[in-house]
Amino acid sequence: MSARIDLTGKRFGRLTVLGFSHVKNRKAYWSCQCDCGATNSPLGGNLRRGRTKSCGCQEHRFSATHGMCETPEYHIWENIISHCYNPRNAAYHIYSSHGITVQDSWRFGENGKTDAECFLSDIIEDIGRRPITTATMFAGICAGCRTGNRR
User: Fold this and answer.
1) Are 109 and 76 found together in one domain?
2) Share of the chain above pLDDT 70, in %
3) Stated pTM of the model
4) Angle 115-127/72-85 helices, nearest 10 degrees?
5) Both 121 and 79 in a single domain?
6) Binning pLDDT at 50, 70 and 90, where does residue 65 land?
7) For 149, how many CA atoms within 13 A lie in the half-sphere containing its CB?
8) How far is CA 78 from CA 6, 74, 85, in A?
9) Do 23 and 77 reside in the same domain of the chain?
10) Does 37 reside within a domain?
11) Would 5 be classed as within a structural domain?
12) Is 125 a domain residue?
């Protein structure tokens, strides 16, 4: 096992390392205090690599924008973006080889709305909320994902 790197006193995002916490499965965990006042014990490697930047308080701030993060429609939006723009997604090569993209407002937002809010308002306005037993399908795969080619 390699020597433990002392992270005491260092800052990682909103976290300040207070000291060493414990070892579990040969991995070092560190006691940290977040800017919001909460304490936690993240994995040292996650701190150094930038994977852990707060106690989780920031996640709630971002998800509160439209309040639909746990809806089927939001997960559809996440998957569409991942299929079209994430090379690590298993389906990316299928979408990218056909030149499939999404309209800019669904990626970057517009008129003060976030990208997801634009997508969600378009979907709900055009076809309504997703029924629990029916999947929302996108037609015209070569036309790309745009307002007007959903069914």
Assistant:
1) yes
2) 78
3) 0.45
4) 120
5) yes
6) low
7) 13
8) 38, 6, 11
9) no
10) yes
11) no
12) yes
Q: What's the one-letter identity of residue 71?
A: T
Q: Are residues 50 and 69 in the same domain?
A: no
Query: Is residue 43 located within the same domain as residue 15?
Result: yes
Query: Residue 127 belongs to what domain range?
Result: 65-143
**Residue found by looking up tokens 């079209």 in the block:** 84
pLDDT digits (tens, 9 = 90+) for 113-146: 777 888 888 877 877 777 765 444 444 444 455 5
User: Running DSSP on this structure, what letter comes out for residue 9?
Assistant: T
Q: Is residue 93 part of a domain?
A: yes
Q: Are strands 11-12 and 15-24 parallel, antiparallel or unpaired?
A: antiparallel
> What local confidence, expressed as pLDDT, does residue 145 receive?
56
Token match 């992270």: residue?
7
- What count of residues does the chain have? 151
Pairing verdict, β 11-12 and 27-34:
unpaired
**pLDDT, tens digit (0-9, with 9 covering 90-100), for 28-45:** 999 999 888 889 999 999
